[in-house]
Amino acid sequence: QKEVEQDPGPLSVPEGAIVSLNCTYSNSAFQYFMWYRQYSRKGPELLMYTYSSGNKEDGRFTAQVDKSSKYISLFIRDSQPSDSATYLCAPGLLSGGYNKLIFGAGTRLAVHP
Amino acid sequence: DTGVSQDPRHKITKRGQNVTFRCDPISEHNRLYWYRQTLGQGPEFLTYFQNEAQLEKSRLLSDRFSAERPKGSFSTLEIQRTEQGDSAMYLCASSGPGQRGYNEQFFGPGTRLTVL
Q1: Which of A72, A111, B55, B109 has the most CB atoms lying inside 10 A of its own CB?
Q2: Are the C-beta atoms of residues B6 and B89 closer than 8 Å to each other?
Q3: What is the spatial distance between Cα A109 and Cα A84, in angstroms, rounded to a whole number?
Q4: How many Cβ atoms are within 10 Å of B3's Cβ, its own excluded?
Q5: Does B111 touch chain A (CB under 8 A)?
Q6: Are A34 and B103 within 8 A, CB to CB?
Q7: Cβ of A90 and B42 within 8 Å?
Q8: Which of B105, B70, B71 is nearest to B91 (CA)?
Q9: Comparing C-alpha atoms, which of B50, B58, B55, B113 is closest to residue B87?
Q10: Which residue from A minimizes the CA distance to B104?
């Protein structure tokens, strides 16, 4: 079993839809939870991160963490074609003095006009 | 400074050849990471530098791989005697003091390696 599981998709939605992206993880030691967005042939860019269980909102994006069930979600409201990308969840922890991130495989999202 | 840069962006080589990639981190960042990403997978950690010291290496980093960060600035990743299984995107990231602190790793565009 992988430490971080993520449905690879692809997920295809119409413009304006609400998108729900999910991850599960197995290591209860993870201390913070990140979402990265990766456009084709580009490096990942950080969208959001949170330390605690609960919701964190940033514009059209909401990150949700449930540590008790080891479940991470990212919601995108009013999705736009420019949101078409691969979304990577990445829980992390301090290990050996550095910030160790474990990436999921990513979910490919396509938002069509 | 506009971000992390990597060179070359693409590299095609024949099996058995040596290749070297370069990463220039964001200038004030003292932490530097190398990752490998294969098609349909997320980035996998390879190694970590704090300043010039290499503090962590993944088991994925076989003895054919070596990374350096002389003077704590740019870093190089060398693969000797390349194999077809080395074909992947090699990503560099850096982190340092900033609004989001050391937790945010800024990624470069990657070097795509194809081993024929």
Answers
A1: A72
A2: no
A3: 5
A4: 14
A5: no
A6: yes
A7: yes
A8: B105
A9: B113
A10: A46
Other CB atoms closer than 10 Å to residue B113's CB: what's the count? 20
| Contact present, B73 and B86 (Cβ < 8 Å) | no
Dig out the tokens for B96 from the structure: 């340092």
Of B43, B44, B50, the CB nearest to A44: B43
Cβ of residue B51 closer than 8 Å to a chain A Cβ: no
B85 pLDDT band, cuts 50/70/90, is: very high
Query: Could you tell me how far CA A26 lies from the centroid of its own chain?
Result: 16
Please list, residue by residue across A35-45, b when 16 or more beta carbons sit within 10 angstroms of its beta carbon and e when fewer do.
bbbbeeeebbe
**φ and ψ at residue A83, rounded to 5 degrees:** -80, -5
